[in-house]
Amino acid sequence: MANRQKQPVRVETIVTYEKAKDILEKINSTSFTVLKDAVIAAAIRYARIRTDWRLKSIEERKEANTARTFAHNALIDSCNILSRNMLKAGEDIQWRKMLGDDRKEIGDFACFLHCILGVQAR
């Protein structure tokens, strides 16, 4: 048998710009303004860190890894806290189901959210 190199598996992104806009619209419909703002702030913080990550050297990444993971966990926690409160209040939490539980997808959502808000601010 010939020695074959493994091709990287391409995973199609589930979160798209349009889906992120839909999720944001659903998040914005909540009466929990403080918790909504916490989700948005955590998403923006994580998206900035992720962008900076791309520009860091390997050594800088090692130094920043704990802070990046902490920010990612804070984003996920803020999404969960908002959705639990919305559910208890009888509000629609379809956005949280759409977002899913995959860490990379949640991170992608944060980046799209950052983009959406940046474009809306023009």
Total count of helical runs of at least 4 residues: 5
**Estimated share of beta-strand residues:** under 5%
Kindly state the mean pLDDT as a whole number?
91
Basic shape: globular
Give the number of DSSP strands.
Answer: 0
Structural class label:
mainly alpha
Q: Please indicate the count of domains.
A: 1
Rounded to the nearest angstrom, the distance between the terminal CA atoms is 58 Å
* Biggest beta sheet summary: none
Helix fraction by DSSP (H/I, runs of at least 4): over 70%
Query: Over all CA atoms, what is the radius of gyration?
Result: 17 Å
Q: Catalogue the unreliable spans.
A: none
Task: Sketch the topology as an H/E string, one letter per element.
Answer: HHHHH
Describe the structure.
The structure is a single chain. With 122 residues, the protein is an all-alpha fold. The protein has one domain (17-120). Helix content is 74%, strand content 0%. It contains 5 helices and no strands. It has helices at 17-28, 33-55, 58-88, 94-99, 103-120. Helix 1 (17-28) crosses helix 5, helix 2 (33-55) runs antiparallel to helix 3 and helix 2 crosses helix 5 (103-120). The radius of gyration is 17 Å and the shape is globular. It starts with 16 loop residues before the first helix and ends with a helix. The relative contact order is 0.19.
